[in-house]
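Review form for a predicted model. The reviewer records the input and the model, then writes brief findings.
Reviewer: anonymous (R2)
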Amino acid sequence: MERIERLRVFLIESPIAMARLQGVGNVKGTVKRVLVEATSTSGLVGWGEAAPWEVFTGTAEAAFAAIDVYLRPLVTGTPVNRIRALTRAMDKALVGHGEAKLAIETALFDILGKRSGLSVAELLGGRVRDEIPLSFSIADPDFDADFARMQAMVPAGNRIFKVKTGVKSHAEDMAHLAAIRDAFGETVDLRLDYNQALDPFGAIAILRDVDRFRPTFIEQPVPRDSLAAMASFAAVLDTPILADESCFDARDLLEIARLGAADAVSVKLMKAGGILKAQALMAVADALHLPGYGGTLWEGGIALAAGTQFIAATPGMSLGCEFYMPHHVLTEDVLLERVPNRNGRVIVPTGPGLGIEVTEQSVRGNARILAEA
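Model under review:
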C-alpha cells in the first residue's frame, strides 16, 4: 500500500503589490504562508498550503509549528488513500489549526489525484462547472487607484467587484459607491463587505443607505457573534446578508439558520479547515437553500487551486470566488504557471491532482523562505 514517506514544511513570505484596508484588519508590504510538500513511497509529490491571518484565524508561524511538531508523526506512514481517516486523526491529536490540517489534506488529495489520473474535483464527485466568476475586492486605501483598476478590468470582462466598506467614513463609502454606479451602472455586479466593522446599534441606518445601490449582498456587517442583529438586517433589508466570520463550520451555519441571520455564506477552506469539511458545510447550506461564495484570505496559487477544485465539484457554490490574489496582489507566486483567469473568470485546472506544477526552484526562486523543516 502506498504511503506518505516524507513531509517538508516551508514558512514563506511574499511581497504584495498593494495595501489592503479591511474592517477586521489591514495588510501591506508582505504576507506569510506555509507550504507543505508530501512525497509518497512511489515518489509522487503533493503540495498544500496554509494561509492563516492573525486577526481572522491564526498565525503562519503557529501553522508551521503545528505541522512540523504535532501533525508530522500522524502523516508520515499514512496510506495516501486514507484521507478522511487522517483528517479524523488530526482533529483528535490537535485542537484548532484548521489551516495546517487543510494544507496536509490538500497535499494528500494532490498525490491521490496524480496516482489515479484524476483531478481533485473528480475525486470529490465530479465537476459541475469548469469556470468560476471572479470577484475583485475594492480595498486599496487609495480608492482612485482601485477605480483606475476597475476601468481597466471591466472592458477585460470582469463584472464582480466587492467594495470593502466600514473602514473609512460612511460619507466616503457612499461617495465611492455612487462613483462606481455612475461610471459602470448595472454592468457590474456590486457587493459590499464590512468585515465586522459596524456596531450593531445604529448599523441599520447605514445599511439602509447602502441598500439603495442595489448590491448583490452585504457581507458580515457586524461582529461575528452579533447574530441577532444580523437576523434583524436580513428581515428588513432588500439586499441579502452574507455570513463570513460568523460561519466557520456546519454547526455555525445551523445556528445562523435557526435565527435567520443570513441569506448566503462565504466558504473559505482556511476557515473550514479542510476540503471535506467545506463540503460538509455546503451540504447543510444546500439543504437550507443558502448559496455559497468562495471567499479568500491571503492565499497563493496552491491554496487557490484547491479552492477552485472544491468549487468546481460543489453545486451550491454559485456566487463566484475572490481568488484574485496571485494575479492581482502577489508580486510573485510559487507555481510554474498561475491558474488562468480569462474574461473575468477563473479557469479550473484539469490536470491530475490540483492540476498545478510546483518545483524546488519555483519555491526558492519566488518566495522568501523564513523557515523550513
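Findings: The longest strand covers residues 4-15.
Further findings: DSSP finds 14 helices and 16 strands in the chain.
Recommendation: see findings above.
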